[in-house]
C-alpha cells in the first residue's frame, strides 16, 4: 500500500532562515499539498551551542508571511507532538539503548584532547573500523572498566558502529541511485552524555520514523549524511519505513561560481533572508525580502522556479498553480543561479497585476509619511498612471509625488535644456488658454491645448517641455494631460504661475 505523504521542514534555530531554506520549505509544502499529504514543521534544536534566541520565532513568522502553512508542528501541535527536539530528550534515549543492546553502537570515552592527539599522529584520522580498536571505547575496554567509568560519572558519547566495505545505496528521487562505500564513513557520534542529547543524525532519523515521514526533501548539503541515515534505519530495524529522499540543488551566486552566501547579497545589494533579521548578539541588521518591499506571492513564485521548471514558458504561478504543477522529477540536479534581477521582475509582475484600488491602499501609509491626505479615488487613479514604472510600492512616491505636491525646485539640467527665452511668454499664454476651459477633462483639455499650439505655430516640443517642467519640476512622469486632469485646473495654473515667477 502507498504510504500517506508526510513531509517535514526541519530547520535548526541557529540564525535567520536563509532563502535557500525557504525554498526547501516551499518544495516540501507544494509536494505535500499536491498529494493531499501533511507538511510538518519540526525544530531541530539539539545542538545547544548553536542555538540562537529568536530564530525559531523568525522561522515561523517567515513561513507565515509566505503562506507556507504547516499542518502539524511547533506552534501548531498535532498527533506527533512535541515537535521541538529539545522536548523529546527521553524519546531518543530509548533508541540509543536499543542500538547499544543490539551491538550497532558503542560507548566511547575519548576526550577531545585524546582525539586531537590521534589526529596529529595519524594523517586523515577517522574514527572507524580501522582505528576504533586503538581508541578508548566499549569495544576494546573490559566491560568492568566501562561500567566503572560510567558509574563514576565520566562523560561519554555513543557512536554508531559502521561495518566497513559495504555499498550503501541512497535512492534519491532527483539524483537517482547514489552508492557510497561504507568505508569512507566514520563512526559518527549519536549521543552525548554531557547534555543527554542526541546529535542531529540520530534525532533526525528517529523523528522521521516516529513522525511517519514518507519523503525527506532537503538541501543538497545533507546528501553526504544520507548513507549514514540509511544505515541507522537499518540498525534500528526500520528499513521498511525508510522515507524516500530528494536532495535539492544548491542556490548559486548570481555571478561566478559557488554557493549563494550572505556576502553576495551584501556585495550586490539584495536580501538573502525572507524577513529583516536583528542579530541578538552583534545587533547587526540584515535586510529581508518583506522589508525590501516584496510581495510574498512574488517571492514564492521566484523561489519555486529556482531549481524547478514545468517544461513550458509559463512563469507566473500562483500557489494553487504551483501545487498543481510541481513535481520532484522536474527539479534539476545542478545548482540554480540566483538571479536577483529576475526576483525584481517577478515583483513587478505582481505589482502591475494588482488593482489600482489595492495599490492605493498600500500606498496610503507612504502618503501619510509625507504628510499627505488624499482620497482613495484620486490615489487609485494616480496608481494607474504610475504602476508600470516601478518594481516596488516603495518606489511609487518618486514616480508620482507631483500628483500630490507642487515642485519646490526645478531640476537645473532640465531648466537649462527646456526653459527657453520665450518659455515664460508661452506659459503666460497657456494660462490664458487653460483659464478659458470649463470642461477640464483629459480629452477636452488636450484637444484645446494642442489645437492652440498648432494654430499659433508655437512648436509642440517647446511648449510641452516647458509645461512639464512647470508642473513636475523635471522632465519625467506620465502623459501631461493625465497629470493635469488629476491635479485640476486651479493647481495647474498655480504651478504655471509659480514657474514663471521663479524661472523668468
Ligand atoms: N536540521 C537540519 C537543517 O537545519 C535538517 C536537515 C534535514 O532536513 O534532514 O537543515
Give a verbal description of the structure:
The protein is α/β, with parallel strands linked by helices and 504 residues long. It folds into four domains: 88-248, Glutamyl-tRNA Synthetase, domain 3 (Alpha-Beta Complex); 262-350, Glutamyl-tRNA Synthetase, domain 2 (Orthogonal Bundle), CATH 1.10.1160.10; 354-403, Helicase, Ruva Protein, domain 3 (Orthogonal Bundle), CATH 1.10.8; 412-503, Arc Repressor Mutant, subunit A, CATH 1.10.10.350. The protein is built from 19 helices and 15 strands. The chain has helices at 19-34, 55-66, 89-101, 112-121, 143-151, 200-210, 226-235, 262-268, 296-304, 319-325, 340-353, 356-369, 376-386, 396-400, 412-418, 423-435, 442-455, 460-472, 480-503, and strands at 6-9, 38-41, 72-73, 105-108, 157-160, 167-172, 176-181, 189-192, 197-198, 215-219, 244-248, 251-252, 277-278, 285-286, 336-337. A hairpin with a 6-residue loop joins β13 and β14 (285-286). α18 (460-472) crosses α19. The protein is elongated. The termini are far apart. The model has no long low-confidence stretch (mean pLDDT 97). Bound molecules: glutamic acid (GLU).
Topology:
Elements: E1 6-9, H1 19-34, E2 38-41, H2 55-66, E3 72-73, H3 89-101, E4 105-108, H4 112-121, H5 143-151, E5 157-160, E6 167-172, E7 176-181, E8 189-192, E9 197-198, H6 200-210, E10 215-219, H7 226-235, E11 244-248, E12 251-252, H8 262-268, E13 277-278, E14 285-286, H9 296-304, H10 319-325, E15 336-337, H11 340-353, H12 356-369, H13 376-386, H14 396-400, H15 412-418, H16 423-435, H17 442-455, H18 460-472, H19 480-503
Helix pairs in contact: 1-10, 6-7, 9-11, 12-13, 16-19, 17-19, 18-19
This protein binds glutamic acid.
Amino acid at each position: 500500500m502507498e504510504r500517506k505523504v508526510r513531509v517535514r521542514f526541519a530547520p535548526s534555530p541557529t540564525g535567520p532562515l536563509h532563502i535557500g531554506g525557504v525554498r526547501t520549505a516551499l518544495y516540501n509544502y507544494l509536494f505535500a499539498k499536491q498529494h493531499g499529504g501533511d507538511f510538518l514543521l519540526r525544530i531541530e534544536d539539539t545542538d545547544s551551542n548553536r542555538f540562537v534566541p529568536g530564530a525559531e520565532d523568525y522561522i515561523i513568522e517567515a513561513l507565515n508571511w509566505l503562506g507556507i502553512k504547516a499542518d502539524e508542528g511547533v506552534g501548531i501541535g498535532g498527533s506527533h507532538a512535541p515537535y521541538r527536539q529539545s522536548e523529546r530528550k527521553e524519546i531518543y534515549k530509548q533508541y540509543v539503548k536499543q542500538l547499544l543492546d543490539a551491538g550497532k553502537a558503542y560507548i566511547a570515552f575519548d576526550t577531545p584532547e585524546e582525539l586531537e592527539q590521534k589526529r596529529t599522529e595519524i594523517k586523515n584520522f577517522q574514527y572507524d573500523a580501522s582505528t576504533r580498536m586503538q581508541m578508548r571505547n566499549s569495544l576494546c575496554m573490559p566491560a568492568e572498566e566501562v561500567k566503572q567509568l560510567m558509574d563514576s560519572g565520566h562523560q561519554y558519547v555513543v557512536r554508531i558502529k559502521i561495518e566497513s566495505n559495504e555499498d550503501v545505496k541512497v535512492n534519491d528521487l532527483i539524483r537517482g541511485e547514489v552508492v557510497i562505500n561504507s568505508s569512507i564513513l566514520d563512526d559518527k557520534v549519536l549521543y552525548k552524555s554531557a547534555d543527554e542529547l542526541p546529535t542531529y543524525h540520530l534525532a533526525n532519523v528517529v523523528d522521521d520514523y516516529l513522525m511517519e515521514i514518507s519523503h525527506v526533501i532537503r538541501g543538497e548539503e545533507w546528501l553526504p549524511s544520507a548513507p549514514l541515515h540509511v544505515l541507522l534505519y537499518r540498525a534500528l530495524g526500520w528499513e521498511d519505513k525508510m522515507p524516500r529522499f530528494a536532495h535539492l540543488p544548491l542556490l548559486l551566486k548570481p555571478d561566478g561560481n559557488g554557493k549563494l552566501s550572505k556576502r553576495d547579497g551584501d556585495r550586490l545589494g539584495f536580501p538573502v533572508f525572507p524577513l529583516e533579521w536583528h542579530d541578538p548578539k552583534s545587533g547587526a541588521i540584515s535586510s529581508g525580502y518583506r522589508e525590501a518591499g516584496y510581495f510574498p506571492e512574488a517571492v514564492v513564485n521566484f523561489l519555486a522556479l529556482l531549481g524547478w521548471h514545468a517544461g513550458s514558458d509559463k512563469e507566473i504561478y500562483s500557489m494553487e498553480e504551483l501545487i498543481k504543477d510541481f513535481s520532484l522529477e522536474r527539479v534539476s540536479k545542478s545548482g540554480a543561479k540566483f538571479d536577483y534581477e529576475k526576483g525584481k521582475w517577478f515583483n513587478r509582475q505582481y505589482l502591475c497585476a494588482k488593482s489600482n484600488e489595492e495599490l492605493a491602499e498600500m500606498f496610503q501609509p507612504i502618503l501619510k509619511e509625507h504628510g499627505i491626505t488624499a482620497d482613495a479615488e484620486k490615489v487609485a487613479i494616480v496608481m494607474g498612471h504610475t504602476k508600470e514604472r516601478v518594481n516596488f510600492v516603495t518606489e511609487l512616491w518618486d514616480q508620482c509625488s507631483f500628483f500630490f505636491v507642487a515642485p519646490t525646485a526645478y531640476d537645473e539640467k532640465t531648466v537649462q535644456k527646456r526653459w527657453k527665452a520665450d518659455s515664460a511668454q508661452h506659459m503666460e499664454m497657456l494660462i490664458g488658454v487653460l483659464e478659458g476651459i470649463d470642461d477640464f477633462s483629459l480629452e477636452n483639455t488636450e484637444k484645446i491645448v494642442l489645437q492652440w499650439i498648432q494654430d499659433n505655430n508655437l512648436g509642440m516640443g517647446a511648449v510641452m517641455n516647458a509645461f512639464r517642467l512647470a508642473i513636475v519640476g523635471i522632465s519625467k512622469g506620465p502623459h501631461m494631460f493625465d497629470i493635469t486632469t488629476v491635479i485640476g485646473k486651479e493647481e495647474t495654473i498655480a504651478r504655471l504661475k509659480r514657474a514663471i515667477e521663479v524661472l523668468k
